[in-house]
Amino acid sequence: MTSPSQFSRRNFCHLLLAASAMPLTSYAQSQSTSPHIAIQPLSLTKVVNGVPNDKLPLLIYQQAVPASASNADDYLSDLFAKNGWPVQWRYQIFPFTHYHSNTHELLGVSQGSAKVQLGGETGPTVRVKQGDVILIPAGVGHKQLSASEDFQVLGAYPQGLSPDLYHDDPSKLAEAQRHIANIAMPTTDPVTGKQGGMLTLWKA
């Protein structure tokens, strides 16, 4: 069953579209505890206009869905739920710079591909495709620049949390930073579970 929050996000997203194209950035890569997953950490620590960003690195789990899985949506939904990050909505990524101040956000690409800008209006651009997962620390800006017609992500958060929504607004920066400072560290990684992934890279 679809929740009211899913409907509201979908209806809102129907009003928003954006298109652009920029090359994939390169950055450090480390291996997760799962042999088929490579995790790419991206450091986005500097404030950009009204986007606070975060000292914690954004993590991109490349091909978190194994080739043997017949349905990426089912696989990611089950994986996230098992690790305490239940899916709350399915759609695309907002095509304007935004962030969340009260929780970290998990985006699992269940189909299609997209180009996404991270860290604010001057931030790097990455391409994500079916099977990839992005773990976005609270405060880190993100927006969809362009996408295939079938692009869809699963949006998930630590159990019991739902995201607020902040725009690139310098007048709200101090308020958002206070919220971010109070966020507790999640106890499980949404992809690798009780070890590796975020539990290693964020503590480092």
From TrEMBL:
- Output the CDD domains linked to this UniProt entry: cupin_YjlB-like (cd02219)
The keyword Signal is assigned to this record: yes
Give start-end of the signal peptide.
1-28
> Which one Pfam family would you cite for this protein?
Cupin_2
Q: Could you confirm whether the keyword Signal appears in this record?
A: yes
Q: Where is the Cupin type-2 domain?
A: 97-144
Bilayer-spanning residue ranges: none
UniProt keywords, alphabetically:
Signal
Name recorded for this polypeptide: Uncharacterized protein YjlB
Species the sequence originates in: Rosenbergiella nectarea
